[in-house]
Amino acid sequence: MAKEKTRKSVYTFGNKKAEGDASMKNLLGGKGANLAEMNLIGVPVPPGFTITTEVCTDYNKYGREKVVEMIRPEVEAAVKYVEKIMGSGFGDKKNPLLLSVRSGARASMPGMMDTVLNLGLNDEAVESIAKKSGNERFAWDSYRRFVQMFGDVVLGMKPASKEDIDPFEEIMEHMKEEKGIHLDTEFTVADLKELVKRFKKAVKKVTGHDFPTDPWEQLWGSVMAVFDSWMNERAVYYRKLNNIPAEWGTAVNVQAMVFGNMGQNSGTGVAFTRDAATGEDIFNGEYLIDAQGEDVVAGIRTPQQITKEGSKRWAKLANVSEKERASKYPSLEEAMPAIYKELLDIQQKLEDHYRDMQDLEFTIQDGKLWMLQTRNGKRTGAAMVKIAMDMLKQGILTEKEALLRCEPAKLDELLHPVFDPTAVTKAKVLAKGLPASPGAATGQVVFHADEAEKWVEKGHKVVLVRIETSPEDLKGMNVAEGILTARGGMTSHAAVVARGMGKCCVSGAGNLKIDYKARTLTIDGVKHKEGDWISLNGSTGEVYDGKIETRDPELSGDFGKLMKLADKYSRMLVRTNADTPRDSQVARNFGAKGIGLCRTEHMFFEGDRIKAMREMILANDEEGRRKALKKLLPIQRADFEGIFEAMQDLPVTVRLLDPPLHEFVPHEEANQKEMAKEMGISVEEVKQKVHDLAEFNPMLGHRGCRLGNTYPEISEMQARAIIEAALNLKKKGIKAIPEIMIPLTGTLEEMKLQEKIVRETAEKVFAERKEKIDYLVGTMIEIPRAALIADRIAESAEFFSFGTNDLTQMTFGYSRDDAGKFLPVYYEKGILKHDPFQILDQEGVGQLVRMGVERGRSTRPNLKVGICGEHGGEPSSVEFCHSVGMNYVSCSPYRVPIARLAAAQAVIKEEAALAKSKKTETKAKKSKKDEGKGKKAAKKKK
Ligand code: ADP
Ligand code: MG
Ligand code: MG
């Protein structure tokens, strides 16, 4: 620890000077770094100091006593520094300095310690403050706030649950009743004195100790409480959700108090340099006169608007007349014009300086403005896009910077219907599941897919509620507004399919009890029947009671501009995974440059098709299969025509039949009977067949190209349908570019045999039609062996598409459908950081991908390579795909814009990293040269 002694642990700021600056967020936390920076650029900030995040880490290692011993001299010196600027003394009875203690991590973190204000007060100091300010009410109001905050935050008296009432609030409520008043501001000085007395009594009762009167004891207690809060349950949980490492620690900011509660010439507020909801370049915010700290957000009093225009807009919404507004709720612009002008200048200065929208806190003490915080403001997806594009237009950002400013995943908000914001606050939350597929849905509960179809046909809006879903539910899912399941994770069938459809889905809502027979859904003992209205928020996982109005997403012009800009910089193209003309069209509208995965199996579930499919599967021999395939051929051909047409002039990768056949056969008695009748065989025979097809491990069983290689006639029919469809369109002058993809290849021979079937079929069709088209034959790389022998596979395959869903499954050895049982435990124990089915595991699976690309291209340098797993729409995975040199990524239609932005960012980040490494390289070269010079000089000396 010798080293730590010389380390600087405390950084002061004040009087437009600071030891730290904005670049030191890691050490000083976001709040501390910005308080320092504001001083440096000449913004008025009350003086104070920041205890570094490193001290927090030490605290967790060595404990309280050791840490206090370590930093005490620096803290004492820093307090002296503040005393000097303020002209008062900490613990001075006549002229006491009061402080605030504020937490502040690198990233702003809800769940961390609440701020303690007015620290340093005790029975003597309060009298001096009263005398000095000539405002007894203010002094006692500050004191009762301090005892409450200290009791809640430092002494742990704040109840853990929001539902439980705070002991201090309870005392205040009693007091109000006794006095027959309603507002905090109505307390008299005598009332406030009485409150302090009762508060202290409550402290003694709960903690067994008197309320600490020694300011230093108060200060150390508060500082340590901030460190403790870093490890509290809420903070730990939040860090886990947001991948914030525990080692980061939080900083502590100690700052001289400024008082917004000194009367009519004082106040406090928050403001945004632009509109955080819409992104409009309009300064806005709220404030309260004669108030302190969090009163504005606490909702005790109605806050007033900062600008006159904002105030007028507010009055309209709140149904307040202009006369009442101007007299009772004037804007800061009207009430304190000089202060407003100063604030307006400062907000501009801060935004210009940080080159981003700022979220500000300020306090006015007796006619003087003080800034207490600035940070990059949180914003909606729409605001994010608008602000970035506006700042580009305004010349504040370069194109590359504007692109990097937008978080790809956040674009999602712009792509789905959303709840009306006021309606949703009034709704009752019934349950919470996983936010499986974003968007908002409201509809009547149905439990069966076919019921969903029937209800929708009759003009109802439905939410499909299932224990879990399967491919048979596809049509019902498609017509439903949203999908709710009791089981299954973020990559469950319901979740994946819903995201593909761009449909709202909440999955794995554990406390749902679904009774299919009785058609009821029980949540916490309350029964909901078929036809009852519920609403889902797929972005948060919340399930609401009743109907909530939704709004269509607004795709503003800026969004389109951002996408164009992204395409200007990205090297990879973005394709889509789509199985229908409608999805293809949606994706095309979102800028997809082709289809990277068209699954053919989904086409077999629609309407009567499943019967022909089942007939094919249940047939006893090739002849029987061919008979059924003949029925399927025109259907498939027509489907392909539809998709090729929607995607004309762009490539469409069609994957041949992939899933285990068992997924298609009838499992219910009634369907089995129907099939038996259709095929002229006995029900027993059907049952036997279904039984025979069952596999112990279907995902590793008879599927993928194993089907096409054991039943070549299936591949033959599909190849024919594809080629014929393309030729039919050619006749109409529409250009189709099919890329035929063989699934689940593991050996070169498997691939070659399939290639042969496809090419021979194509030649046959060309001969029949006396007409040709261009097409490719390639494969999905989704079995680890295929990645390992990719150089061999590329002898036959003209393109690779990494099927990273299966590749992840087989590399980890996790069954995707069963992983939900252990993955949550794995995150909790830190065994895994994220779901590898959502975020590509670059360390492991990524190696196979990289190797597959390299080896494939070693055989075939122009090999076209893409990805078609769920990862194709996940930003960090897209970046990885870029780094291994893929030609494209393919993702569900609603993720296309996200992937387009991520692909552009990948290029920009790569360039930046390259430039940086070049810089250090030349630096290293230079220092080597210097070293050489030094050596020569040394030699000369000798
Ligand atoms: P949070 O991170 O929750 O916003 P803050 O530390 O910013 O917590 O503080 C909470 C409230 O207390 C804010 O309204 C802030 O402006 C106010 N506050 C903090 N320090 C001071 C101070 N020195 N003087 C006056 N008000 C303060
Ligand atoms: Mg704050
Ligand atoms: Mg697969």
Account of the 3D structure:
- By secondary structure, the chain is an alpha/beta fold.
- The protein has 37 helices and 32 strands.
- It folds into four domains: 255 residues, ATP-grasp fold, A domain (Dna Ligase, domain 1); 113 residues, 2-Layer Sandwich (D-amino Acid Aminotransferase, Chain A, domain 1); 135 residues, Phosphohistidine domain (Glucose Oxidase, domain 1), CATH 3.50.30; 287 residues, TIM Barrel.
- The strands form six sheets. The protein has an eight-stranded mixed β-sheet. It has an eight-stranded parallel β-barrel with strand order 25-26-27-28-29-30-31-32, surrounded by seven helices. It has a six-stranded antiparallel β-sheet with strand order 2-1-3-6-4-5, sandwiched between helices.
- Strand 25, helix 23 and strand 26 form a beta-alpha-beta unit.
- It is elongated.
- Bound molecules: adenosine-5'-diphosphate (ADP) and magnesium ion (MG) (2 copies).
- The site of one magnesium ion has 6 residues, from helix 33.
- Its EC number is 2.7.9.1.
